[in-house]
Write a structure and sequence with these properties.
heterodimer, A: about 290 residues, 2 domains, five-stranded mixed β-sheet, 5 strands, B: N-terminal domain of TfIIb, Rossmann fold, Dimethylsulfoxide Reductase, domain 2, six-stranded mixed beta barrel, 30 strands
């Protein structure tokens, strides 16, 4: 069994290396962004430019590269093309970024990697593979709402949940790591640096104006990669803040961020006048209808 | 050149988090967390995320500077180094080697600190070498050496996550050591109890189960009251005390005077609460004590640490996983600077300069005579400047802002015959220099830092120093050679080999072994995996020693003329004297100007509104700063961060010293506060 897992991983790595090799050989891209493990066993992101370097390419640990891809593409000369090793969440983040004109589609190539079942369980990922899988076996998705801790924070008694959230959010040390690591947080200027919402010079950050603004800003773009939560030094389950909205968009509007490059977010279209969807609206929208005189 | 990612270590606090610097065409453009780092595991605080911001700042020093009257003139290195060597040599020839003082740096690497102290000791035959540990954890080194035999954090940072009870006293870890605070939250999520002793309602307090807002400087009464209750109720670890400790009878007798009621009368905490806290700490399977400047920066700082050690040893909460004593070191390499012997009484590895056998070992290894007379400390070197000390070499320290009673410090710096300052910016101290040497920051050099959990970590060079600035290692080698030493090291790794040959506890440290995750000392040989926690079956000194903590109240308490109690410290976005953080735009925007915290009721009494100017005066001097009205401080208390050169909190602080460790009493002094009226300004 162990041998099987190992050989599976080796095949996956070899496959990935071959694709990267081909891309460099055929000059389809100027570099391949992936993970490098050097002779001293250190793993870090690296832009592979020459073929011999590819011997050091590795796929583990999970290390999100979407945001790095964007910063590399943005600071590169015109016509620079980058290939990126993508897990499912990375690919979805890159699609969101192209939809929002942060990356030019033609400058980006992706090499799709499927995550292991184990990784999917750690991430509570409902879609642990990219649309285009180049290497790896597709694992089945995990329903985050079956997770006990998620349920404690998102389901049941409002008062208890409020207390739970207040207890974790007051730990915030305002490192801005959630924003810095989020592949989709790209607004300039950032609302979290606006004095109207976030008071300078003080910790913890205000719950409603820091964390909820961030959550709402990402409500239809969050790809649930979990980078925010992984970067949080004080263990705030930031990913959970996004899960309900993601669930609603998926179930009520059939929309998932980062899935279809052509599909517009329901928030960008006027969902009150969206006849063709034919889906039912969530209950809270009734109050809006009355106000609008519908 | 394209884009490169370089793994290295954060230059701010002693946690020693892992950074990845993104370098684009030779310029450090971004910082990311290192997911594989054993301490920070993919997280950083706001300072870590911003670590690249000051590196290429236009204010960086790019050439040696020579004072000409009131201005500085750029000079080449081949003039600067001989001049530095000549001036120091002249001073030593005229007044003796003890007329030269050296301040080494907790910001610099182990190798640089080693070379610095070797240079001072070998060339000038003086032990006048010290650094800012004197201003932070000198009491820890003294007290823990006495009680346990080793002045370092007993356990590892990750151990905190497994503790059942965490007792935080005098530490605002949420702002000053945020990544360590994260481990404490992990423990809380697993059901641990957090108890916090602090005057201010800090972010740590807001997340605690029990908060003890004691009267200023009454840590010893509280701790003694707890110990008395623990002994009375038979809650101490009798087996541990019998098997591993000495001095219990003396402690017991001393503690008998500290009834819980008496303790309560001094520290102002309800007796029932003292008992509850004592029971919680003693009964937990694993309890940890975390402390910081709130304990050490007192005139009874050493006694405070002794009381902490006594409590931990009494309950057997030392020498095992998930428990222990956690002094949180403030600077990235303050642990290492101490380890490397940048201290006036010890060679590298805490080996005493007064021990003839040890001195002989170093004399043989270094090939020269050494002095057996302990040297002067930071505050003494500054204090005797222009008198016993005629010339000084200050490497990457900023006493003009960091030391107590600033007016006096500035007078002293002016009184020196010759002052060499080696730094990356023209600091408030460098402005007084005769010769300024432009050094390198963390991203521009290789070497090692040792974090607060005794972990040697590899620093990797990401970019070149700006202009004609040089790597600190190279500057020290040039100066050492100019002063006649054989400083022909080609790489810091060679220096580490020399260190390993002289200090048994670092015997197994080699650069090639540090590539992945580093090594925690003691690490005596090349196969040793490093040490996660100390004092396992045996204390470093053999048996643990209970030492009685004598209580002395703060030297200066509020009175009719100075009715407020003033405390100083750090805030989350700035670091120490602000040299780096105030030049980092993202950090500086959090607090662009000096401020002091004041309670709303006091503000009403003084007729001061939030954001208005106030004047704080003590017996040393006064500053004008901005009032920040907050319930974080209680009535009668003022808190002033010390990062700001335009309103130096250390103008106000009391330079009275702890007799054992020579640390100044930064945390307590009496002050008067007035609204600064607009008329006065005109």
């Amino acid at each position: 069994m162990v041998v099987a897992v190992w050989s599976g991983k080796l095949i996956m790595l070899e496959k990935t290396k071959n694709i990267a090799k081909q891309i460099l050989e055929e000059k389809k891209a100027n570099g391949v962004l992936g993970l490098m493990k050097n002779q001293r066993d250190i793993v870090q992101p690296h832009v592979f430019k020459r073929l011999p370097e590819l011997d050091a390419l590795v796929l583990e640990p999970k290390w999100l590269l979407a945001k790095l891809s964007m910063s590399i593409l943005r600071s590169s000369p015109e016509g620079y093309r980058l290939a990126v090793l993508c897990r499912g969440c990375d690919e979805r983040a890159l699609i969101e970024l192209t939809k929002r004109n942060q990356i030019e589609k033609e400058n980006l190539l992706t090499i799709g990697i499927a995550c292991s079942q184990e990784q999917a369980a750690i991430c509570l990922c409902d879609r642990p593979y990219p649309a285009k899988v180049d290497a790896g076996e597709i694992a089945s998705g995990v329903d985050p709402f079956q997770d006990e801790r998620v349920r404690e924070f998102l389901i049941g008694n409002d008062k208890k949940r409020m207390e739970k959230w207040a207890n974790v959010l007051k730990r915030c040390i305002k490192c801005y790591g959630c924003r810095n690591s989020c592949p989709i947080c790209v607004c300039e200027p950032c609302k979290l640096e606006d004095d109207v919402w976030v008071q300078r010079g003080d910790v913890p950050a205000e719950m409603a104006t820091f964390h909820l603004i961030r959550a709402f800003h990402l409500s239809d773009t969050c790809v649930a990669c979990g980078a925010c939560q992984e970067a949080c030094p004080v263990n705030i389950p930031l990913l959970y803040l996004q899960l309900s909205m993601r669930k609603t968009l998926k179930e009520k509007y059939g929309y998932e961020a980062g899935l279809d490059p052509e599909k517009k977010s329901p928030i960008l279209s006027d969902f009150l006048k969206e006849p063709e969807t034919g889906r039912e609206y969530p209950e809270w929208i009734n109050s809006l209808r009355e106000k609008d005189g519908h | 050149m394209g884009t490169e990612f370089i793994k290295t270590i954060c230059p701010y606090c002693g946690t020693g988090c892992g950074l990845i610097i993104k370098v684009k065409d030779g310029v450090a453009v971004a910082t990311y967390p290192d997911r594989e780092h054993p301490v920070s595991r993919g997280s950083l605080c706001i300072k870590g995320w911003s670590a690249h911001e000051f590196i290429h700042h236009p204010d960086r020093l790019t050439s040696p500077l020579l004072r000409k009257g009131d201005t500085f003139q750029k000079i080449p290195w081949d003039e600067a180094i001989p001049m530095a060597a000549d001036k120091l040599r002249e001073t030593a020839a005229k007044y003796g080697g003890d007329a030269v003082g050296g301040l080494s740096s907790a910001k610099c690497t182990n190798e640089e600190n080693y070379l610095f102290q070797k240079l001072m000791r070998m060339v000038f035959k003086t032990n006048n070498v010290d650094h800012c540990a004197r201003l932070c954890h000198a009491p820890t080194t003294v007290a823990m050496a006495q009680t346990l035999g080793s002045g370092a954090m007993t356990n590892s940072i990750s151990d905190l996550a497994g503790a059942e009870c965490i007792f935080v006293i005098g530490s605002n870890a949420a702002e000053s050591h945020p990544i360590i605070m994260g481990e404490i939250y992990k423990a809380i999520d697993r059901g641990a109890t957090l108890i916090v002793v602090d005057l201010r309602k800090t972010a740590v307090v807001q997340n605690a189960k029990i908060h003890l807002p004691i009267n200023p400087g009454t840590d010893i009464p509280l701790l003694c009251g707890m110990m008395r209750h623990i002994i009375d109720e038979g809650l101490y670890d009798e087996e541990f005390v019998k098997a591993r400790m000495e001095g219990f009878e003396e402690l017991n007798e001393f503690i008998s005077a500290w009834t819980v009621e008496k303790a309560s009368g001094e520290c102002g905490i309800d007796p029932g609460l003292i008992k509850l806290v004592a029971e919680t700490y003693a009964k937990a399977k694993e309890s940890a004590i975390v402390y910081c400047m709130g304990i050490t920066q007192h005139a009874c700082g050493t006694a405070n640490v002794l009381a902490i050690c006594d409590l931990a040893m009494l309950c057997g909460h030392v020498g095992k996983e998930y428990s222990g004593i956690y002094p949180l070191r403030g600077q990235n390499n303050v642990q290492g600077a101490c380890d490397m012997g940048a201290l006036p009484n010890v060679y590298p590895g805490y080996q005493s300069v007064s021990d003839p056998a040890i001195r002989d070992k170093f004399q043989k290894a270094w090939g020269g005579e050494l002095s057996d007379k302990p040297g002067l400390t930071v505050t003494e070197i500054i204090g005797s400047a222009g008198k016993d000390i005629r010339a000084a070499y200050i490497m990457a320290e900023n006493p003009a802002l960091s030391d107590p009673d600033t007016s006096h410090v500035l007078e002293s710096l002016k009184a020196l015959d010759f002052l060499i300052v080696h730094d990356i910016f023209l600091t408030e101290t460098a402005r007084f220099a005769n010769l300024v040497l432009p050094g390198s920051c963390f991203a521009e050099k290789s070497g090692t830092f040792t974090n607060t959990e005794r972990r040697f970590q590899l620093l990797r060079k990401a970019v070149d120093p700006p202009g004609n600035a040089k790597e600190d290692f190279a500057i020290l080698c040039l100066l050492g050679s100019a002063l006649g030493l054989d400083f022909s090291y080609s790489h810091p790794g060679e220096v580490m080999e020399e260190i390993a040959s002289l200090v048994p506890a670092y015997g197994g440290i080699r650069f090639e072994r540090l590539e992945r995750g580093g090594l925690q000392w003691p690490c005596p040989d090349s196969d040793h995996p490093g040490t996660q926690y100390l004092h396992k079956d045996r204390f470093t000194r053999g048996r643990g020693l209970f030492v009685t903590p004598e209580y002395t109240p703060p030297k200066e308490l509020p009175d009719a003329d100075y009715p407020y109690y003033l405390s100083t410290g750090r805030m989350f976005a700035h670091y120490h004297t602000g040299t780096m953080t105030r030049r980092s735009p993202f950090l500086n925007r959090e607090a662009e100007e000096a401020y002091a915290e004041i309670n709303p009721e006091d503000a009403i009494h003084l007729n001061v509104k939030d954001g208005e100017k106030i004047k704080i005066t003590t017996r040393r001097g006064s500053i004008i700063t901005t009032a920040r009205i907050t319930k974080r401080v209680s009535r009668g208390c003022i808190f002033a961060p010390f990062h700001f050169a335009e309103a130096r909190a250390n103008m106000l602080t009391n330079p009275v010293l702890d007799p054992l460790s020579r640390i100044p009493e930064f945390k307590v002094c009496a002050a008067d506060v007035r609204k600064e009226s607009q008329d006065d300004e005109r």
